[in-house]
Amino acid sequence: MAGHRLTPNVDARAQARIDAYLDELAHLLHGPRRRRARILAEIREGLDQSIADHTTDGHAEDQAVESAIDHFGTPPAVAAAFTGELITAHARHTIAWYIATGPVVGIWWLLLLQPHPWRAGALGLLAAIPILPLIAVATATAAGTFATTGRLIRWLPEASPGRALAATIAVAALAVVGDVTVITLYTQSATSVRPLGPSRSAEASSASSAA
Amino acid sequence: MMLPMRPELLKGHLDALLLAVLEPAPQHGYAVIESLRSSSEGALDLPTGTVYPALHRLERAGLIASDWETVSGRRRRAYRLTASGHTALREQRAVWEQFSTAVTAVLGRRPWPATV
């Protein structure tokens, strides 16, 4: 953040104090990069306005900067206040990514574990991809978390940041379990249909005839 | 000048206060804080760290929206009420009126302790 000038009239020492404040805050914020950048830009803009107000009120520049920083709170306090929003933003970002890529992964699974042509419908799918119930749970969890952290919170109980994070970890874990299961099933089926090589008896007989 | 109010007392009402401040016109974050303070004669002098995350939450809920704008060469993120925000504010005003009427009815019957 250093180098972002606020009020054009602020001297170098005051600017260094503001940069140090924003640098410390930047190190304490954890979450999606764009969201962190937005928070820092807003705090910078607010500090700018606050310093201008204090200067207009007749405060010396150094004093105006200190008063503005006091009003905003220490970097750990500001970062702590944003923690919940950043956790929720991270959870929504991750879940949106899973929801967006889910259909592609699903098609990939269907191509790998082709349902048996004689077993149609849901049973056929379930026989080919037995982890489908697990994926249904993951999808419901993802949809529920997305709904209870977004625009529907006017009508639905809002999920706390901790709950949203726990749900995201659960969805990620279920996705990993699904991927590993599909890869394992595919590897096993590929092994079972692999053309057999020369049997041991054939190898043995050819060895004895050669002898 | 009224005494500053503790932020925890506002728990549950901050959303409505922020929506009410944004009702007349879009404002940037710092202006929202100043509006709350000036319109309450200093009683609602909330820490900045409380207001900015609350604005982000309201935006996530779709009750307000924000855009970057440039005013006098300064870039600011201005917040404005959405249609859902106007509806929510109307609902929360009605809830507050019911609540405050009920609390006043109860508290009003009790004599305040005399201060020495």
Automatic annotation (TrEMBL), chain A:
- Report whether Isomerase shows up as a keyword of the record: no
Protein keywords: Membrane, Transmembrane, Transmembrane helix
**Magnesium: is it a keyword of this entry?**
no
Q: Which Pfam families match?
A: HAAS
Known InterPro entries for this protein? Perm_prefix_1
List the transmembrane segments. Answer: 95-113, 120-144, 164-186
Supply the name of the protein: DUF1700 domain-containing protein
This chain's source organism reads: Kribbella aluminosa
UniProtKB/TrEMBL annotation, chain B:
**Gene3D superfamilies for the chain:** Winged helix-like DNA-binding domain superfamily/Winged helix DNA-binding domain
Keywords attached to this Swiss-Prot or TrEMBL record, sorted alphabetically, are: DNA-binding
Domain Transcription regulator PadR N-terminal: from-to ranges? 18-91
MF-aspect GO terms = DNA binding
Which InterPro entries does the UniProt entry name for this protein? Metal_resp_DNA-bind_regulator, Tscrpt_reg_PadR_N, WH-like_DNA-bd_sf, WH_DNA-bd_sf
Protein's UniProt keywords contain Transmembrane: no
Give the superkingdom in one word.
Bacteria
DNA-binding keyword on record: yes
**Any single Pfam family the record assigns to this protein:** PadR
Mind telling me what this protein is named? DNA-binding PadR family transcriptional regulator
